[in-house]
Write a structure and sequence with these properties.
177 residues, mainly alpha, 0% strand
Length: 177
Amino acid sequence: MGIESPKNHTEDADMEFHEHIKKLRESKELTQIQVAEAVGVAKNTYIGYEKGSREPRLNELKKLAELFGVSLGELCLESRDSGLSGMLKASFEATKDLRARDKAALLQVINGYVAARRIAQIQSSYNDVPEDIREELIRDEHLRNSEDRLLQEQEDRELDELIKLETAIEEHEAQNE
């Protein structure tokens, strides 16, 4: 089973907002009057949205998104700048039919990619730090590591002493019995 590129997304990428809300309304089998009432605007106002002669305010956009079951971004066609967003969404939706181990493998690939990108960003940020500050940070890190190592060695010695003391006490008690 292959993952196909969504055909309707290409059409949506060229669609204007007013065409998009009309398509969403029709897909939900709602009338203009029903949508206008749900959004809390006059029928003629909503018709203006679908004709492109009027634009909804933010609170009306939120109500439209909720009514149509989409995010504000999807409602406003934010992904039309790049067909990749729609393709990714369709690809992720197609994964619902995959077996659990295939999903896990795919998740590992995605996590690996995200981690690699994050590492590249950190390295890039590190390269932007002036050389003298980088050297100071490295020295500080070495000092912290040395201090941690010394503390761990001290804790290990104290633990060894405690074990020796407990062993001596147990031996002494065994001899006295």
